[in-house]
Design a protein that fits this description.
39% of the residues lie in helices and 19% in strands. It has a single domain, classed as Aldolase class I (TIM Barrel, Alpha-Beta Barrel), CATH 3.20.20.70. By secondary structure, the chain is of the alpha/beta class.
Length: 289
């Protein structure tokens, strides 16, 4: 199995699971809220935080731009809403500085080519390709041209779709995430066995981007071979925003990291053997034959 290096972290078999706290747009356009979420991720023990970057005029279809929407800023056109939640240079400079001081990596899902170029100025360790963009060959090639590792989600994809994306991106410095792109995702649809299928098919590190409401299935994904885990985080799932309900609150992300690390410690070598702590019990409990 190939490995991928993100600064001082290595993603691959035999390595600790790389845990990403996705802030996405759960900051609702407020950089101070974004910093609070970064702090939550750091305290929980996450390896990185992730944002989303879009150029609204490129990413919002013309038919949706004037659609009215209830928001914290009132009843406004969808295009204005997208612009209000989009961070610019000043905000990302603050985020970059804050993450450096906190000692945590950050990067972003870039939904268009100008966004890739914008984020590139911050020397991020990698790029994320969102499930919605995994069939955008032009964006995949442009992202790859920056020379950084790529983590690509595969929600809304068949294996044929993933085959095509892998062909475009190449396997070097590539991580694939099994994903179900509903928010929140229902448990019968999670199909965690796809992680095993993808590991065998692509020979690259495979992870899991979960949008379910709970924790156990994400922990199970690690036991099934996920080498990266990504979960949305929020301060309160009742907050306004499309991704909040599928996110983990501070206690939830803390428990998730704890449980993943406990599972990793428990996996062992696969060799069936007597452990040293059992030997006194053998002498005391087993009858001589």
């Amino acid at each position: 199995m190939r490995t991928v290096r993100l600064r001082d972290k290595v993603i691959g078999d035999g390595q600790p699971c790389f845990i990403i706290a996705e802030i996405g747009i759960n900051h609702n356009g407020n950089v101070e809220l974004a910093k609070r979420l970064i702090s939550v991720a750091v305290i929980a023990g996450c390896d990185a935080v992730k944002f989303q970057k879009r150029t609204p005029e490129l990413c919002v279809p013309a038919a949706q731009q004037s659609t009215m929407r209830e928001t914290p800023w009132g009843y406004i056109p969808y295009m204005e809403y997208r612009e209000r939640v989009e961070f610019g240079l000043k905000e990302y400079q603050e985020i970059d500085d804050f993450c450096r001081k906190q000692g945590v990596m950050w990067f972003a899902s870039c939904w268009d080519e100008p966004s890739v170029d914008f984020i590139d100025q911050f020397e991020v360790p990698c790029y994320k390709v969102a499930s919605a963009s995994v069939n955008d060959d032009s964006l995949l090639r442009h992202t790859r041209s920056r020379g950084k590792p790529i983590i690509a989600s595969t929600g809304m994809c068949t294996l044929a779709d993933v085959d095509k994306a892998v062909e475009v991106m190449g396997k070097d410095d590539l991580v694939l995430l099994h994903t179900v792109s509903t928010y929140p995702a229902s448990y019968p649809e999670l199909n965690l066995r796809a992680i095993v299928t993808m590991r065998s098919r692509y020979d690259v590190p495979v992870g899991y981007s979960g949008h379910e409401t709970g924790i156990p299935t994400t922990v199970a994904a690690v036991a099934m071979g996920a080498r990266v885990v990504e979960r949305h985080i929020t301060l309160d799932r009742a907050m306004w925003g499309s991704d909040q309900a599928a996110s983990l609150e501070p206690n939830g992300i803390t428990r998730l990291v704890r449980d993943i690390r406990l599972v990793e410690k428990s996996m062992g070598t696969g060799e069936k053997a007597i452990v040293e702590s059992e030997r006194p019990l053998i002498a005391r409990l087993r009858r001589a034959c």
